[in-house]
């Protein structure tokens, strides 16, 4: 199992990819990328995991022209994240599980955080999926323009 964690302000990357190779299990995360980096920019990237693939933990992140794949909560966290022109691939979850493209974890109403997608292309497949859900009490729902 591999989790790549980035905690450097101003992190910029392009044309790379990270995969969490953990076997899908009933209640275990398989995060491929965890960002805790202010003003991070990810361009032409690939993030492959199972449950909770992309953990946008805190700060501000911009993800453009990238591929993100996984199950359960594909993009989640309590940050300001914008995805633009990304291909989001939802894998088949285990029995009795549902996929959610985004899950925002805002703790209080005073936080200026949220997840926004613009021009993304979700590949939902033939299974039941949810586009966005609240992870915490004060979470905001995704706006897809």
Strand order in space, largest sheet: 1-4-7-10-13-16
Task: Give the helix/strand class.
Answer: mainly beta
The biggest sheet amounts to: 6 strands, parallel
The poorly predicted ranges are: none
Number of helices: 0
Question: Separation of termini?
Answer: 35 Å
Round the Cα radius of gyration to an integer and report it.
14 Å
- Shape estimate: globular
What does the average pLDDT come to?
82
Helix-strand pattern, N to C? Answer: EEEEEEEEEEEEEEEEE
Number of strands: 17
Q: Considering DSSP H and I runs of 4 or more, what fraction of the residues is helical?
A: under 10%
Task: Assess the beta-strand content as a share of residues.
Answer: over 45%
Task: Describe what you observe in this structure.
The protein has 145 residues and is mostly beta strands. It has no helices and 17 strands. It has strands at 4-6, 12-14, 17-19, 33-35, 40-43, 46-51, 54-56, 60-64, 67-71, 73-77, 80-84, 87-90, 99-104, 114-118, 121-123, 129-134, 143-144. It has a six-stranded parallel β-sheet with strand order 1-4-7-10-13-16, with no helix packed on it. The chain has a six-stranded parallel β-sheet with strand order 2-5-8-11-14-17, with no helix packed on it. A five-stranded parallel β-sheet has the order 3-6-9-12-15, with no helix packed on it. The mean pLDDT is 82. Pathway: Glycan metabolism; pectin degradation; 2-dehydro-3-deoxy-D-gluconate from pectin: step 1/5. InterPro entries: Pectin_lyas_fold (IPR012334), Pectin_lyase_fold/virulence (IPR011050), Pectinesterase_cat (IPR000070). GO terms for molecular function: pectinesterase activity. It holds the Pfam family Pectinesterase. This is Pectinesterase catalytic domain-containing protein.
